[in-house]
Amino acid sequence: MTHTSLSEYVTQYLDGLKKIIDEMPADKIESMGEILFQAYRHNKQVFIFGNGGSAATASHMACDLGKNTIGPNRPRFRVMSLNDNMPLLSALANDVGYDRVFAEQLVNLVRPGDVLIAISGSGRSPNIIEAMRYARERAATVIALLGFDGGEAIELADEYVLVPSSEYGPIEDLHMILDHILTGYFAERLEQHELATA
Question: Which pTM does this prediction carry?
Fold first, then answer.
């Protein structure tokens, strides 16, 4: 039985990642960016959430969009991650069940025209699905970053980006790349807008 060496594994992983990057749907990423830009222009709230590694990506994305778009005399991006309040998350999980930890937070917060960003490798997590359903009922726009075949989440999303992979590592890698693409895009677009109106 032969074992893959570390250098072989690194090469295989990076080659696989390059292939996935080449297959990413630029048009869907652009559409997602436009949805977020309109939310910013109209002072809508953006909610981001996920489980496990996707929860970390949600926190990172909320931080990036909130912090890296700040400029003088510029409205702030109204963005938050639903998995950052651990006391609330654990209380909801304990009292109403883990499948409701995100949807129950939206009951207090979501308004028509707000934007939800669901991050899920499988697209099958019950708490992700429940939140997406609730947001749609409240006339919010639902975006999803997905992997595998998209699961049920792909049917509930107004717009989605599906990473063409069946491995969590590359899926989560690409979700983070999408965060950095969108954050960089917003920072640049806002600067250009300010220069054009100066």
Answer: 0.94
